[in-house]
Design a protein that fits this description.
A hairpin with a 4-residue loop joins strand 7 (139-143) and strand 8. The chain has helices at 9-12, 15-22, 61-68, 128-134, 157-171; strands at 50-53, 57-58, 71-73, 80-81, 85-90, 96-98, 139-143, 148-152. The strands form two sheets. Strands 1, 3, 5, 6, 7 and 8 form a six-stranded mixed sheet that branches. A two-stranded antiparallel ribbon has the order 2-4. It is an alpha+beta fold and 172 residues long.
Length: 172
């Protein structure tokens, strides 16, 4: 089956991976510039909220296990994180602050099942194109030679709360 569409290039950002997933890798996609047209409006997207690191440090298995109970993670244990860094996709529509640097508290009580290693699901690795498609207006993509990271524009929880209050006060 051959389908032809006139789509703005900005509408194709992030679509190639979704297309390959939907066609199970059997689809072929090509694009050709038809010309320039006037702005036709925003292209809507629907996305759940994100998991945001609550503090800086190194991500640990125990903290990531707690984060994976809330949604999918983008990082693995041992990854350096900072406050405001996006570490995953929330299962719900709102953003959630999580502590991925949290350690399991050591106690004197031991059981035969407590020392079984925690198994984490593999993190979702986003390409640069997927990252650009993923972010909302209040988020940024950091690109370094070694990493592609996502973060909130306002890093601290306090700054984000003040900005939310300011927006709500302006809407009244």
């Amino acid at each position: 089956m051959r389908l032809e569409y006139d789509i703005p290039t900005r509408g194709l950002i992030g679509f190639r991976n979704a297309f390959l997933t939907l066609t199970k890798g059997n689809g072929a996609m090509a694009s050709l510039l038809q010309g320039y047209e006037p702005w036709a409006g925003a292209i809507g997207t629907a996305r759940n909220g994100v998991l945001i690191a609550s503090e800086g440090g190194v991500a640990l298995t125990y903290g990531l296990n707690n984060a994976q109970a809330r949604g999918q993670t983008f990082i693995e244990p041992g990854t350096p994180v900072y406050e405001g860094m996006i570490v995953g996709l929330n299962a719900r529509p709102d953003d959630l602050v999580v502590n991925v640097c949290k350690e399991k508290k050591a106690t004197n009580v031991r059981s035969s099942t407590s020392d079984i290693a925690v198994r984490l699901s593999p993190p979702v690795k986003l390409s640069l194109e997927q990252s650009l498609d993923f972010i909302n207006p209040d988020e940024l993509v950091e690109v370094t030679p070694q990493n592609i990271r996502l973060r909130k524009r306002l890093l601290t929880q306090h700054e984000r709360a003040r900005a939310r209050e300011y927006e709500q006060a302006g809407a009244r």
